[in-house]
Amino acid sequence: MQKNLSESDVAERVESLLARMSLAEKIGQLNQVGGADFAPGPKAEDQIRAGGAGSVLWLNDTKRFNELQKIAVEESPSGIPLLFALDVIHGYRTIFPAPLAMAASWDPTVPEQAQTVAAREARAAGIHWTFAPMIDIARDARWGRIVEGAGEDPFLGAAMAAAQVRGFQGDDLADPERVLACAKHFAGYGASDGGRDYDPVYLSETQLRNIYLPPFAAAVKAGAATFMSAYMDLNDVPASGNRFLLRRILREEWGFDGFVVSDAFAVGNMVIQGHARDGRDAALRGIKAGVNMDMSSYTYANHVAELVAEGALTIAEIEELVRPILALKVKLGLFERPYVDETLLAQVVARPDHRDAARWAAQRSMVLLKNEGGLLPLKKDIKKIAVIGPLADSMSATEGSWMVFGHQPAAVTVLAGIRAKLPGAEVTYAPGPEIRRDIPSWFESFMAGETRKPPQTPEEAAAAFQLAVESARAADQVIMVLGETDLMSGEAASRASLDLPGRQEELLQAVAALGKPVVLVLLNGRPLSINWAAEHIPAILEAWQPGSEGGHAVADILFGDVNPGGKLPVTFPRKGSHAPLYYARNLTHSPEGSPMYNPRYWDGLPTPLYPFGFGLSYTTFAFSNLQLSAAQVKVGETLTVSVDVTNTGAVAGDEVAQLYIHQRWGSDTRPMRELKGFARITLQPGATQTVTFPLGPDELRYWSTNAGGWIQEPATFDIWVGGDSQATLHTEFEVVA
Ligand code: BGC
């Protein structure tokens, strides 16, 4: 492994490359070529041979990588190697829980390890660069892509963003087991109007800076090599032509020195979006905004040379965008080692520690939402178990959304996990009626999956319903596995309702009416409004999209080999129409609990079904002895908050201590609660641990509308510490000038 090159060595090599490249080759570096058949444009080989491609995406074929690389290195004019890029979002072959699930671990080592494994496998396949982490804050559960990020909170989101960057990149880009990370989608994509994917986003600078940008700032700090500009309009300017985002914030303020790739076709799409006059204008806007690489729209390839010839762009402007692309190729060691060993992948994916890491990640990601009467954990001597539901044996729902191109799901399903856990028990399985999107996903056309079967007829559905009820009737214990299929969340997978799709709730009610003990396991990529279940089903486990080892992890938890300790990274609303719903709202003149309180809607409570940060355990915890290092600090100083956490139950377990603050007055109104610290700890029964959190200028400052910038102010602050965002243990302190 080559050691980190010095910045000046890298710069020197980049300048010597630039000196021998033609303008066409420089423009070529800015062009990312679609390697799959569906991608438009000229043949990949021809573009590469002419020096017209800097990178290839949508290809997942080790042998083909080497073939194309050989053309780039041996046949193109300056022999500059290609970067192979792909969406490796939560695993390459060993699939980890979806990012929203990993955020529910409240343990940054979970995504860090996951992405370390993902990087090792992807790199062994020949991939250099992943389009991850996706770090869009999402407060609207209707938005399908909420599954790809860390949920609603900027503090948790920033921790998960940095951890993923570390996991993908390690601390040396020349490490042959790492890949380049790409922080996406810059910025604000999660706030689309109505939660409708791709729709415009309107965010004040205050919201942008306090809520949506912190994970991206954290990614830059962690060394993210690349960024992806988003699709949608941000305040009426497409993110992929947005100088404010890409130049002022990303480069000038944050000092980002990597490169920016547009989202797919986003440079060319500025014409469709009604922003650019034509392709030429779109290319000009993309370049001027600082989008280094055009993902597959060929707008740069088709127009930049002409723009330079006309004098609308200078060669210096093109070189400025080429430099960081070449620099990363140098840092990766691609010039020394352009090819991948075609025998490596088979060895790497067979590593048992990868499967172990996936199981551990899934165990840590699951959230126990309800456990009335201590129904869970179940006893292992149950004789007859009925496992019921359309997702109980679905590999694709278990592995989840955003599968790597061409990947065939091979997950341990919940049914398989339960059967493996209880080899002596009689475990029956009945899927019940199928579930399906009302409007199919575009992705179905090229993703292998169970969703491609012809739809069930009403008669078949009725028979499946009956069979499921009968199998429940014959069992001692029922485990219902309900939720959403993989393509019901993710890109182009927003929905207006958050209810269980199809006839799942009806089936749940019919089964519950039998009077058997019922456990509900949820597989899904977004909050669901499971109001009926929350009231009537005694035990509910949120398993999300748990990945390749998901079924084992579910069984580990249901049968008590693992005590769940995950917490919700996102609020569960009672209705889709309550979205966006999040805990860090501002107070109003009529706050809840005040004599002047007026309900927000007259047709039902808009309070959460489950609040942010919530999750149960098979044991119980108490928080006490909340202490501050000082009751008063000056602006700029740091105080320490400490609290004792005690396991008050009978088994060992994990608790996530969460610290929330509220600034009572100031230049702007601040949210009634904001997460500013968390720590997941393991405690033996009866044991107590003191957890400490620093609170300093980083935690106490904010971007103020009135002040027009970042400020930290003298004010009184509330502090709450506890196991969720409704924690009651309280104290306060003063910041003085
Ligand atoms: C998505 C990106 C993704 C890209 C490349 C786009 O449709 O928005 O998240 O990285 O495709 O596959």
| Fourth-tier CATH superfamily name of the largest domain | Glycoside hydrolase, family 3, N-terminal domain
The CATH topology of the largest domain corresponds to: TIM Barrel
- What is the C-level CATH assignment of the largest domain? Alpha Beta
Q: Summarize model confidence as the mean pLDDT.
A: 96
Uncertain regions: pLDDT < 50 for 5+ in a row? none
Task: Tell me the span between the first and last alpha carbons.
Answer: 52 Å
Could you say what the CATH architecture of the largest domain is?
Alpha-Beta Barrel
Can you tell me about this structure?
Helices cover 31% and strands 18% of the residues. With 737 residues, the protein is α/β, with parallel strands linked by helices. The protein has 3 domains: 7-190 and 209-344, Glycoside hydrolase, family 3, N-terminal domain (TIM Barrel, Alpha-Beta Barrel); 354-578, Rossmann fold, CATH 3.40.50; 621-736, Immunoglobulins (Immunoglobulin-like). Strand 23 and strand 24 form a beta hairpin. It is globular, with a radius of gyration of 26 Å. The model has no long low-confidence stretch (mean pLDDT 96). The structure holds beta-D-glucopyranose (BGC). Residues 87, 131, 184, 263-264, 491 line the site of beta-D-glucopyranose.
